[in-house]
Amino acid sequence: MRQLILENQTIKNGLITLGAKDFKYLRQVLRVKTGDMLNVRLQDGSLQTTTVTSIDDKSKKIILQICANPAEEKTITRGVQATQTQTAKNLADHEYWLFQFLPRPQKFEQIVRQATECGVAVIVPIIGKYSEKSSVTALEGNRKERLIKIVREARQQSGSPIDTRVMQPVTLEKAVELWQEADGELGIVLSERNDRSESLKQAMSSQSSGDSPVRKVAVAVGSEGGISPEEISTLLEKGLFHAVHFSVNILRCETAALYGLAAVQSALE
Question: With a threshold of 0.90, does the pTM exceed it?
């Protein structure tokens, strides 16, 4: 674990009290002891070095004290430094969105985990032509809570300062509206076919404008059945996306999402 993500804990006099939910992981998995130092991501996005001041095994509580002088090299976690604000605008040069046409629930969970580790800010599940109805209903209730847990664990493991959000499933038309309302700049849809497609370099160069580099970037990825030609057309014409076809082996949807994100991030960074 590179950092501990705090959710609803309050800080009083520089002390943080952790309850049973975090106690089990820290005590039984990380085996923390009094005097250990942890990197903690606060709710405002800042990363703080803390010291374990007390452990109460009976009440299952751990108290951390925020250090005045960070000593990251001595901590048992390794975190990524961030600014005091949690907005992606101040945390990174680029804000990444993933428009994922809904696959089966287990695959979507894997995609969410990997996208979070990659620093994606917003994940938008799309109800597409090839999405199963069970995949949509699965995101309701306990499954939604599970996704929140997956995001938290992925951030703790990767050290990501980005507070990844997983939105409710939407139609393709609604997804396009969300992208337009967010003032999205560069949209890439991964296409299985090379017709109407261009290279990643061509798509990126068409959006760059001199001294104003592209900041807000989206990658759209299909489900198990891919994306229909009609859906591709909607993204190209209404969402101002660019169709990009990678000449590689046939990829599973969960692999394609990670591959596409990595390719776009590498090209931009």
Answer: no
